[in-house]
Design goal:
about 325 residues, alpha/beta, Rossmann fold, N-(1-d-carboxylethyl)-l-norvaline Dehydrogenase, domain 2, 2 domains, 8-stranded mixed beta sheet, about 45% helix, globular, binds nicotinamide-adenine-dinucleotide
Length: about 325
């Protein structure tokens, strides 16, 4: 097994996340073959690639690697043929993933590592029908995969330690930051945190105390700006002032018992869903998804460039330049 950037990558599923993986590897120089039965897959991938090229041109104006070749196929075996690494990004359905991962496992030489993009399904379940379960790891990325460096690695009961090591070096070879989730837990680390924020947001909409737009402003006008520089713990250490973390904990810790937050998610009733969708439509106005992606990407490129200048955090993990 080799942990260098694979010359050829096989992708299973080419939607939002599979498209992001395709751009991440292809724009770093790997040849990528995507298996996706969607007749619109080629058009959607071309649009993701257009935005990814635009973003990477902002990040590396003078020195981008020669792109690999992108192919879209409708047979699994054609996507896996000659692949040195495989990433699965199927819809989040356990049965489907188990079935297709077992089929891919039967077609691939045993040394090829398979990463799964699942947002929270357990790898022990995903590898349960594989003949070579040791080669599977969760490799959970963040959207847009072609810009954000974080990828959470989580092995199942039968995953080999070597697989985690190899997958780490493969993801690093395309500029990513692997975070090893050492315990197999539902939702891994980042989605547990994100779900807590999301659940509270849904409660506030359900209770009619804030709109989609107000909640988003509460994030991106304040705490969201800090999160690209420091995580919750370093931010709260600083917030404790000279008295430090112990002081911060004693000042704000008791509020955790009040509690401000609600642990049970609200029921996703039709009324709540309609309220969210209507408010989200009003918030987005005329902007298309591709335009919103460009707005997001322009901001991320600016932030990543600033972090690169500071030699800090995510600025140390960028898609490769030439
Ligand atoms: N969207 C996100 O922000 C995000 C972030 C991290 C991880 N994930 C995870 O990534 C995975 C994919 O999510 P997504 O958002 O890209 O979903 P998506 O619906 O955009 O894409 C899924 C793709 O899989 C294709 N597909 C369906 N059945 C297939 C089959 N049998 N064989 C091959 N392809 C098939 C679909 O045509 C579609 O293009 C999920 O496991 C999800 O949890 C999503």
């Amino acid at each position: 097994m080799s942990g260098e950037r694979p010359a050829r990558v096989g992708l299973i599923g080419g939607g939002v996340i599979g498209g992001g993986w395709a751009a991440r590897f292809c724009l770093a120089g790997s040849d990528v073959t995507v298996f996706d039965p969607d007749p619109e897959a080629e058009r959607k991938l071309a649009e993701v690639f257009a935005n990814a090229r635009r973003a990477l041109a902002g990040l590396h104006p003078d020195s981008r690697p020669a792109e690999g070749q992108l192919r879209v196929v409708t047979r699994l075996e054609d996507a896996l043929d000659g692949a040195g690494f495989v990433q699965e990004s199927l819809p989040e359905q356990e049965d489907l993933k188990i079935r297709v991962l077992a089929a891919a496992d039967a077609l691939l030489p045993p040394e090829v590592v398979i990463g799964s993009s699942t947002s929270g399904l357990l790898p022990t379940r995903l590898q349960s029908a594989m003949k070579h379960p040791e080669r599977l790891t969760v490799g959970h990325p963040f959207n847009p995969v072609y810009l954000l460096p974080l990828v959470e690695l989580c092995g199942g009961e039968k995953t080999a330690a070597e697989t985690i090591g190899l997958a780490s070096t493969i993801y690093e070879s395309v500029g990513m930051h692997p975070l090893h989730v050492r315990h197999e837990i539902d939702g891994f680390i980042a989605d547990r945190l994100l779900e807590a924020v999301w659940r509270e947001a849904l409660h506030m909409i359900n209770d009619g105390v804030a709109t989609v737009e107000e909640i988003d402003r509460a994030i991106h006008m304040g705490p969201g700006l800090r999160w690209s520089l420091m995580g919750t713990f370093l931010i709260y250490r600083v917030a404790g002032g000279e008295a430090g973390m112990r002081h911060f904990m004693s000042q704000f810790g008791p509020a955790l018992k009040l509690p401000w937050t609600k642990l049970e998610a609200p029921e996703l009733t039709d009324e709540l869903l309609n309220r969210i969708v209507d408010q989200s439509d009003a918030q987005a106005g005329e902007a298309s998804i591709r335009e919103l992606e460009q707005l997001r990407d322009d901001g991320l490129v600016a932030i990543l460039s600033a972090l690169r200048d500071m030699d800090h955090g995510a600025g140390r993990y960028l898609p490769p330049s030439a």
